[in-house]
Amino acid sequence: MGSADSKLNFRKAVIQLTTKTQPVEATDDAFWDQFWADTATSVQDVFALVPAAEIRAVREESPSNLATLCYKAVEKLVQGAESGCHSEKEKQIVLNCSRLLTRVLPYIFEDPDWRGFFWSTVPGAGRAGGEEEDENARPLAESLLLAIADLLFCPDFTVQSHRRSTVDSAEDVHSLDSCEYIWEAGVGFAHSPQPNYIHDVNRMELLKLLLTCFSEAMYLPPAPDSGGTNPWVQFFCSTENRHALPLFTSLLNTVCAYDPVGYGIPYNHLLFSDYREPLVEEAAQVLIVTLDHDSATSASPTVDGTTTGTAMDDTDPPGPENLFVNYLSRIHREEDFQFILKGIARLLSNPLLQTYLPNSTKKIQFHQELLVLFWKLCDFNKKFLFFVLKSSDVLDILVPILYFLNDARADHSRFGLMHIGVFILLLLSGERNFGVRLNKPYSVRVPMDIPVFTGTHADLLIVVFHKIITSGHQRLQPLFDCLLTIVVNVSPYLKSLSMVAANKLLHLLEAFSTTWFLFSAAQNHHLVFFLLEAFNNIIQYQFDGNSNLVYAIIRKRSVFHQLANLPTDPPAIHKALQRRRRAPEPLSRTGSQEGASMEGSRPAAPAEPGTLKTSLVATPGIDKLTEKSQVSEDGTLRSLEPTSQQSLSDGSPAMEEPDQAWREQRRLSSASASGQWSPTSEWVLSWKSKLPLQTIMRLLQVLVPQVEKICIDKGLTDESEILRFLQHGTLVGLLPVPHPILIRKYQANSGTAMWFRTYMWGVIYLRNVDPPVWYDTDVKLFEIQRV
């Protein structure tokens, strides 16, 4: 039968279904088989031939028929899984049913009355003898998920058969050890199967259906306390699924082994179509959804120890009940970590390669999913995090993230990308090794729209952060705290900042310490505290190599004097705020010598009009996002959180953390009748007295006269002479006692877990356009907005 006839017959069946007012018996195979037995329709056909309006009409007007359709389609998948799909016809039926379910499920989820349907055991009306079902009947959802899992390891359908002779009966589905059929070499599996286009396509269809099952989460509004687990994910990732380990490993290895370059030959992708990419993308999406687990709130019930392969570490206490999270947290072999890190770094760097030899490699689009995966790895597996920071390989993750941050800074449809990039850097910056690694010289020249500089990866980070703050979208301001916290966390380890980076930091201080900026919002002065803390760390712990920064501080000394003499009387505050009304632009580029941007770079572009974006929930403030720790003499960290109240009384400069002041701000600043915030003298005094200016004032007191003397003696305006003097100068014994180093480490919390959930599903929603699985359905987790 030709494909046109096939489509016509399928469409006829759909019309019959939508026009029948009476329930059709489940036993009426002649009717139901029209949907899957005789047709060969692609998933795109199914979407075109089953319009949304008709699915909704059947749901409202003949619910029992929709119920039977779902039940029969699941039954066919279960039969296919049981029989092992030997004939072409069986394979076709399985694919048709999975496409049909992918089409229909979102419309079941969008209606609250239907949501329990898949979790009920009696599968809807019209089924002969439904009442006599035995007690142990599984809910429809469980049967569906187990069938998908079996089908993903079905020889000659989704995996290579191991049987040599065709005479021999095919492998028995029930005795098959799916660990021998893992899709790709990598973690816990050494054998790389022959690539097979048909198997990849079949896996992809089944993964698309699996992702659609999991997507019920999109139809529930974001609840602040929703540690609520997704029942579909919970069941699929439990010990009920005997394929959990091989499937987790298959997904992870498929993603991390993928090389879009075309086996190292430039332009190869133009000759061979790459059918692997859609599978890799689907695998990445399924993987991050199965790992959606709120580590802040979850208890860790025990897991049957027998499920672990050798690749997983058995020494740790049993992890969470979600086996995918459990396995991920227990990967421990160096070679596995190396494989994962290299794979993710290779894929994240792919869009950057484009810029050297345009079109030489296939440009991948799933970098956001990769960043979520990397985040999950670091968050759930501390051994992986330490491995990443153990060598300079971490820089292969850092550079692409900085590239994405810089590229997306003006585009508000890419806010989610900005946030996840900053979150990852915040997580990494809590570890001393990250700061140390940043001292490696930056020689790769990825074309980026930033000033040219010669220096280290620390310089690159500071220059990009400066660019985001001064020329990013104005709605990025909530991220400034995070960006500067990262700078503070790495500052004690930065051996030598370039002049470009030093000037950028002082330009930020200059911009943030203008009176109208300080007085115009309750939180703005935090930014000044962060910058002063970073300067103090560098002066106290890395003075020797940082003559560029010291010189920049001397040149801009007036900024520090202005801060020390900040006016606190009401008329001055009022006057500063008046000035603001005349100068709305918060951070101009003036005062920062931009210099030419790198060759080959394109300026960061705003969102194209009409671009779709999904809304995000608010992220927690920096005080909720991080927890303070003090670095001891031996380099170990001591948390300051619950007990920091006592240590504040000892008056050591490090403890001059304006924490209480921050809590008292609201009390001290008056909210005027209009609800507009307005600063008071008491409020300014409450934090002005805590500005950590002692170290810098002492440095200026000692060095400024010496520098002025050189200038007078030599009649110099030449920087190099002054820099040489500063390089050999020393302040030993002249500065205040070094303060303890304070690190603000990321801490897991349900606020970020909820943010990740909405961000991740938003990405999946927008990226699945062919077929458009969720478009025009009534999702509740986020809003879809047009730019």
Automatic annotation (TrEMBL):
GO annotation terms (biological process): insulin processing; response to glucose; secretory granule maturation; vacuole fusion, non-autophagic
Domain of life: Eukaryota
Region annotated Disordered, chain positions: 571-676
InterPro entries, alphabetized: Hid-1/Ecm30 (IPR026705)
Biased composition (Polar residues): 641-650
GO annotation, cellular component aspect: cytoplasmic microtubule; cytoplasmic side of Golgi membrane; cytosol; Golgi medial cisterna; Golgi trans cisterna
Name of protein: HID1 domain containing
The organism of origin for this protein: Ursus americanus
Native organism taxonomy: Eukaryota, Metazoa, Chordata, Craniata, Vertebrata
